[in-house]
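Worked example 3. Consider a protein that binds S-adenosylmethionine.
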Amino acid sequence: MKFIDLFAGLGGFHVALNALGHKCVYACELNDSLRKIYEKNFNINIDGDITKLDIKKIPQHEILCAGFPCQPFSKAGSSQGFNHKVAGKMFFYLIKIIKFHRPKFLFLENVPNLLNHSQGKTWNFMKKKILKLGYEVDQKIVSPIDFNIPQTRNRMYIVAKKNKLNGFTWPKKLKPKNNLKKYLSNNPKLIKEMSEQRKNAIETWKFFLTKMPKTKYLPNPLWSMEFGATYPFENTTPLKIKLKELKKMKGKFGVSFKNMNKKEILENLPNYSKVRTEKYPDWKIKMIKKTRDFYKENKKWVDKLMPKLINLKSEAYQKFEWNCQGDKFNFTGKIISFRPSGVRVRRNNSSPTLISSTTSQVPYLAWKKRFMSYEECLKIQGMEKLKYYPKTNGVFFPAIGNAVNVKVVYKIGKELFN
Ligand SMILES: C[S@@+](CC[C@H](N)C(=O)[O-])C[C@H]1O[C@@H](n2cnc3c(N)ncnc32)[C@H](O)[C@@H]1O
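Given these inputs, the predicted complex is written out as structure tokens:
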């Protein structure tokens, strides 16, 4: 069948549908560099901005594929949905194209948050629009890990067929296997460099773990700035009490507020504590309490590491997320990602979601002492056969993080077009 690839990106839909024997007759993508790469990979002219194209010029097709921009619905974005200035409108452009061309199948992808956005109202509204055009629609949250592709990446897949879906069923989940290693290379080519600050963060937390008593519990997250802090957090908050009172207390890493002015005090409070509220939410109180209790129990050895932790400077490095309860306290076989919420450590059974909004969360393979390479990221997205791909961090990582997983699309497509 003939298909079109809207919001084409790196061409995840294209690769999967080609493999299923279908032919791309039209594509559009806003980003210039991605467009050039798409043309070289697939030998096809590709249009730009969907809002500017002449719908009538899109060739006749049976399948419409679109991973429409997801920032307005994603948790990482501001969740504005349809109110979003431009991207929220993309759905309406899709509807226009569907209305005009009436393809037999629709195959869409978005972030899982779309399903519950605005208490489910957004998706309900969208679904109704598609139904009204005479399609039967189904949707499901699917992740590559469901099919033993080692990436946790929940995405909402939407399938629709004119009239009826005719017994379409979603591909069945497979029994989990720990196979990330099969996707990694011994001779990786392109690898993102690691900053000195990050190297330092890894070394510091690695060292911290060597000191961690085997029998003790490591809270997750651990907000090390709370070590030695005594500012109030349970019944009130530091910005709500009198300065005179606050001066009797201690801030980040136990620094005394005694001789500080207001500005200095503010600089020595963790960022998350500086909200003007009578009381923190329960989850925040719990997190702070856990770290402070941990500190009380482990003060003797933790105090010796305090200068190293202070030297990490950024709070994102001073927070530690040990997602491996029950494992030995070391980085052997672990994947590390640098997130605004902290240095996150997880087991290596799968890669964390490759995300598009920042180039800084590329998974770091601790046992290989390097980030996941470009080629490895392509492989866990099922795009290893792409001949051309962006060669700079600033273009590559957002694009691969935006891409649809080829193997997931292939599996769903196989059932849908049957
Ligand atoms: C979620 S990504 C889709 C990725 C694609 N499915 C893939 O496999 O790589 C959305 C894409 O829509 C593109 N885009 C955003 N606004 C657009 C517009 N107005 N017209 C065409 N493409 C647009 C973005 O540049 C981005 O590459």
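Take a moment to read the result before moving on. The domain at 2-175+397-416 is CATH 3.40.50.150 (Rossmann fold). The longest strand covers residues 135-142.
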